[in-house]
Amino acid sequence: MLRCRGRVMAVMALAFIAPLAANDWQVATAAKSAPNIIVILLDDVGFSDPAGFGGVARMPAFDKVAEGGLRFTNFNTTGMCSPTRASLLSGRNHHAVGFGRVADWATGTPGYDAIWKPDAAPIAQVLASSGYSTAAIGKWHNTPEWEVSPAGPFDRWPTGLGFDYFYGIMNHGGDNHWEPASLYRNTTPVEPVQRPGQTYHLTSDFVDEAIGWVRTQRSVAPQKPYFLYLATGAVHAPHHVPQEWIQQYRGKFDQGWDVLREQIFARQKALGIVPADAVLTARPVEIPPWESLSAEQRQVFARQMEVFTAYLAHTDHEVGRLLEQVNADDPASNTLVFYVAGDNGASGMEGIHGYMDAAAGHAPQLAHLDELGGPKHFNDYSSAWAWVGSTPFQWMKQVASHFGGLRVAMAVSWPGKIGQPGATVQRFAHANDVAATILEVAGTAMPEVLEGVAQRPLDGVSFSGTFKDANAAAPARVQYFEMLGNRALYQDGWIASARHMTPWIKPYPEGFEKDRWELYNLNQDFSQSMDLAAAYPEKLEEMKQRFDEQARANNVYPLANYVEGRDYGAPTVAGTRRQFAFVPPLQRLPTKALPRLSRNSFSMQAEVEIPAGGGHGTLMAYGSRLGGFAWYLNDGHVVFANNVNGRDRSQLVSANALPAGPASLGMSFVRDAQGNGGVVTLHVNGKPAGERRVERLGSPVLGSLGIARAYTSPVSADYELPFAFNGTMKQLQITLDQ
Length: 738
Hints:
By secondary structure, the chain is of the alpha+beta class. It contains 15 helices and 30 strands. The protein starts with a helix and ends with a strand. Mean pLDDT is 95; it is low at 1-21.
């Protein structure tokens, strides 16, 4: 009886199993012709920085893509980082996605809130649902700042926006390329891997990761095409590059920015990058003539450009490693490469003297000239070099009214699919066209509804027709531009432009009604050199009206100046809390897990057990070697180390070493009613253990928050990472004064 019952149960089980065996699992499968797709996006590279576009930086990897494919000389961005990335990855205009400015400059209106709109889904989601493997590696910069922490939410991180895999930096803007503070694998904080015999560099790390990911796809799922988005983060400041690369460009810029710009322009004409009748636009009055500079200034500024150019050349070298490996591993691979050399024009945000550790003028840079490019400094170059990098156009990054802020070099290759290898594409193209092109060649399209959300139509237009014929006519086109009040409208060979501000001159002008509109016929004036507003007033008014229509349709209004440091009411990781409790062990935390401590009076309390032999290690580290402060034990003594921008350092050390056993340790900062200074006091078991005044509390610069161990880099020269506390910490509490 039992035996029979067992047979019946087995038959019943098979009855349930059989339908599953015959089930169609509905696995997404890409079209057989669908190519692998690699999008490479560099950061803050000007139109004329690559040697292949007239500049000085040798970029053989970029040149190889262009020689085997196409070079685009009329490819345009939005004028700034997050907005271009949002547009490129979604195929929509940047305000419509929510990125009218960079993610860390969010304000509470739909076009500027840094919240990726569900009706503007990124193409990674579409490709993933069409059978592609997808990965984003490198700089992201498209997640709201208040959502960047190990606590999430993660739906607006890369892995929530269609990418199967992410490895990169979540810091907004840039990161330290020697000692990055914001590396994540998917949504987990990770620390840089130091390889024996190699000096760590972030760009190299990204490329190693990309090579490894591609090899994994080929090994495990060779039947699936892949979409790899590699955004280097270079050459955004700080300009960090090995010294041996800088040596290659010594003396290349001693002629100065005026002469160099003329030399670049001549090379551009010889290379066919610009038309023979193009005009070199004039130097703006805001930039001094090279001849007016002192010998010391020239020495500093020339070195700045040597470092920047080396940084760009090094970045291309690393990108070349990826492309060479892709070809070597599978020479017959069906791989389409977009190499976009810049997310906006060259960056001139730091003014004529450039930047080093917030020090004023050129003299501090002169004192550390041979250290520029290394890990000790946050450095950037003069705005004048950004103007050179935008040759032959006017202006630079942020100035979306003129092509110096918009136009970048791009090369595209697809072995066996380019009709005229080495040809130049001169038709107008925009960052939002890349997504449209990718979807078309992948044999798919943006669905009308995706994951239950009706989708906004693509604003971009595919340029895949140029793959067969580089001279393929462009469709009739209207494209608006707006960044920080600088605005323009392109329409079929004409552009109307209104510049509102100069990147390094603040405060920006109030109001927008006084901004002067210009008009250019690009069919006859490649570089926007001849303003025709007075000659064609009706044409200008027509285009201004069209800009207004586009602005209303894309959430561009209201126009507003953005003032860094002002509280716009955006959410924060910390929220409204004034008290924070940390129980170690903890992974690396972003410094924005706390309010800005330098703007508050606050106290810290740590309940610890000191081991026999003396206490040693981190209690709390906040920042990096480039700026911040740390509270720790050194040979049993309590230490507070203050570090202002990596150059103004001070310490407070308790007189007595702590005995073994339990201890209640305190530290307080009482900020002055006026100014940035205040008094730091140490406490041991409720009693004062030292006091000193600091004129400014160190703010974290490209750093992190570590509890009971340090991350990123040492705030103080007293220690090296990880400098973990050798005792037991029950809890560390931070309380901000009300």
